[in-house]
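User: Can you help me understand a structure? I only have the sequence.
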Amino acid sequence: MPPADLIREGERIMTICNACRYCEGFCAVFPAMEGRQTFAEADMNYLANLCHNCTECLHACQYAPPHPFAVNVPLTLARIRLRSYEQYCWPRALGSAFRLHGVATVLSVAGLLIACMLGATRMIAQRALIVSGEHADFYGVVPHGVMVGAFGAVFALVVTAMIVAVKRYADDTGGPSGAAQLRGIGAGLRDALTLTYLHGSGDDCTIEEDARAPWRRWYHHLTFYGFLSCFASTTVAAAYHMILDWRAPYPFFSVPVVLGTIGGIGLVVGPVGLWATHHRRDPATVDPEQKGLDRGFILLLVLTSATGLALLAFRDSAAMGMLLIVHLAIVLTLFVTLPYGKFVHGLYRAAALIQYARESRSSLG
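Assistant: Let's start by predicting it. Here is the structure, written out as tokens:
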């Protein structure tokens, strides 16, 4: 559907919902909708990113297909949400990457980076670097300066791209300026970190009509907090090296290894669980154009954690060098694709929840 037609369809559906208001207690989307009399493009982008796709409203809607009104809020907002990622992306020329992002793209980029890293290291020329035992040395395979330089440059570009994209979104959807920007941040972040609106109308999100389960929310938590645990592990390891001059690999019960192990397990169980729940979701609520986006991101998370756990388990074996190269290449692939993959939905959703918290406080006085 052309972008202009998609926004008009969203406006049509929100107008019907605003007249009905049966679903006003289900999630944040409907109270936010009720505060608007018209629905411009920016309003639809805001409501779309506020939606958690719990599907509660579709199963309760008296105007859902096959009714002639054909109201399908989850599917319509999912399509607008994908378009908003492309619209606010930086650089804008890379907006099409969201539709190209899939399993094949992920594997191609990862394979290319593995080949580049193999060529850039001394593994091929100096076979001693992949010999195991007490002499195993991560930085003997990939020098610390190379790791810091490559990942530091990519990280800086990724953070810049995500900051610019979220600022574009916030500016377009009418976020407050000045001191008012601080209002509602705590409440919005709390709702984002606890996945408040994956509970539907007080219960867990709906997977199928008349069937509720907490799995989707739990798998999201495992994925998100697993990612944070892995990030914390990397941060602590960097402090060990830069401040204390302790070189990796670290003991099994050291802080970075424990955090990395916990995070790695979460990043296997969570994404695999999400992959499984996707197959059980009502097809009427799933945008086919986003399947590749979802699966590519899930695959990257699983590969990142699985290769990291394998490196931990076999770091004292002859396979250490190759495992390290593969793991670093997968992590670099994840970093490179963060601003142009499903990861950004968390950023836009947090921004939308903060805006909703501000609006709610303003309406109360």
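Now, to help you interpret it: The two ends are 41 Å apart (CA to CA). The CA atoms of residues 88 and 165 lie 5 Å apart. Let me know which part you'd like to focus on.
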